[in-house]
Amino acid sequence: MGELPAAPHKQDRVAGGRPHRPDPANWSPCGQLCPVCRAQLSALATVAATDALRPLRPADAWCFVGVTMLPSMTDPDSPSPRHVDGTVLLRVRAALPMLGPSERRVAQAILDRPGAVTEWSTAELAGEAGTSTATVVRACQNLGFRGFQHLRLEVARAAPPVAAAADTHPLARIFDDAADAIRLGRDSVDLAAIDRAGDVLAAARRLVLVGTGFSAPPLQDAAMRFATLGRAVEAPSDVLGQQFAARSLTDQDACLTVSYSGANAHTLRACRAAKEGGAVLIAVTSFARSPLTQLADISLVTGPVTRTHDVDPFLSRLSHLLVLHALHTALDARSTASSTAPMRDVVAEALIADE
């Protein structure tokens, strides 16, 4: 890094000397960087060099009471960075000297047990660090994440991929990864929970399916499959439509949801509405500790697949699809032949006539 032009070293403080995020208009790029800031900027530059971030510039570092952040880490409009080979952990380690004592304990707990972070709840991480849940959330935000759920997803994504032979065809690697993901899902899902969910679905007067993003297509597929059993099922694609349907559920109904993270705000809003009306909530998700599993009556957890991906958790979605198919099979076993026979006619009538 070349020498930086001299400029005022501005820091913003609040009463008691606690760090805060000042208005961006008041942030001042460090001119003559202090030794700590210079060391941190160098560490973050090293991280950025191995990450899919735009090139780091000296002006990208803003110093305010010991917190140095990258705009691309905090700007919600920035592309989501690709984390590979522990880059997330490097970023957490680089920020350690910048955090307060309580937040530093949170960061150190993440570094000490990264494999456990994906299974922890906010409260469990707080217990591990000997601090409060509010401190955990604040520490995650000061590390550049939107909160603990965001950090946990990025840690899961940062797991290094299993090395493959150089001559392995991409198709072979994809099928091998899919087989591993399916085995993980099979070993993770509670079979007794599948049986309980089947009983609930069979007894429900109404069934509403809710999910957004990449979780929506599996739900639409499941809705069609449930319909072939003669079950009335609703699967609104619009997030507001999901909330409208969920709010009309009662204690005679059921709500089935799919969410990879278990922390999707739109999905949680609809699920809370269903629960408030008394409906039984069945959740298909990848993480055992999440806001969704805390809310659900029955949780079908497939486990997080530790394979690097940018946005789409495709391998986890394979297990979600199979769990939904297992629910369809369980419901089919509880259905009568008279309810499914007319549905076969629908398929037959869709075929073209022989010429």
Report what the structure shows.
The chain is mainly alpha-helical. It folds into two domains: 15-157, Arc Repressor Mutant, subunit A (Orthogonal Bundle); 170-350, Glucose-6-phosphate isomerase like protein, domain 1 (Rossmann fold). It is 50% helix and 6% strand. The protein has helices at 35-50, 71-74, 87-95, 101-112, 114-117, 122-129, 133-142, 148-157, 170-188, 191-203, 216-227, 239-247, 265-276, 291-295, 314-333, 337-350, and strands spanning 207-210, 254-259, 280-285, 298-301. It is globular and about 75 Å long.
Write the layout of secondary structure elements.
Elements: H1 35-50, H2 71-74, H3 87-95, H4 101-112, H5 114-117, H6 122-129, H7 133-142, H8 148-157, H9 170-188, H10 191-203, E1 207-210, H11 216-227, H12 239-247, E2 254-259, H13 265-276, E3 280-285, H14 291-295, E4 298-301, H15 314-333, H16 337-350
Parallel strand pairs: 1-2, 2-3, 3-4
Helix pairs in contact: 1-3, 4-6, 4-7, 6-7, 9-15, 10-15, 11-15, 12-13
Work out the number of β strands. Answer: 4
Distance, first to last CA: 76 Å
Instruction: Assign an overall shape.
Output: globular
What is the gyration radius calculated from CA atoms?
24 Å
What is the H-and-E element order?
Answer: HHHHHHHHHHEHHEHEHEHH
- Strand-residue proportion: 5-15%
